[in-house]
Amino acid sequence: MQALSKGNHISSVLTNITNKELIASTTLLSPNDFNGMVHYHDNAHFSFVLKGGCTERKKNSYERFPGSITWYEAGEIHQIIKVQQPSFHVNFELSPSFYTVYGIKPETIAMAISGHPDARIMMLNVYRELNMPDDNTISSLELILLNLIQETAKLECVGVPKWVKILREVLNDRWQEKITLTELSIACDVHPVTISKYFPHYFSCTFAEYLRKQKVNRALALIKQSSIELSTIAFACGFADQSHLIRTFKAMTGLLPAAYRKL
To answer: Which of 46, 114, 221, 238 has the fewest CB atoms within 10 Å, i.e. is most exposed?
Structure first.
């Protein structure tokens, strides 16, 4: 078993930028010479598949596709068992001091990565920043990450109304449906005005923005499949048409779908 210290990966590190609390990096897994050794990392990290993908194993095997994001606890044993094509990843690695400085628990970060619609969009922005770094890049990325975590922590705090958690589950499960405010109020057993008034407070965006983020998240993996037309993806992900998909994707990620497909 191999132990990987700060900044090291089984994959080849292409770019990285670091401070005392975190490291942001891009890495590449090659099909012909990837390291399939069982290993763990001294620091917790999470990884976004920008292109390609691989098969991994923790307790069980699972596939990682473009647009997927995976959390690895410090010391968590895992293994890459198959790489069929070059796989490019964007990573955030967190040192123990990160939790101390900001008073954040690892499980809060894990929840933010798995449940927040901004997580994948954030990782695309990280990729863009790593390609155009300056003296402020790492601080900017740290602020983006902290905002994401704090928004998730707010939803888990004691005293958050039960209907807020129900609403999040409904929106995550029924993202592709044209669900009305009346239907949501019935599902959450709360007045529509209450949802309308407090949604921006608990979700840090408008109702419409939240749904658009969900749709962009679903589109990420499909766009990487060059055989699927953008018009088909737009329909499958609930956009009005291809133009609507292109405008929304560009506004949220800074990239046109065609440019993201070619990365």
So the answer is: 114
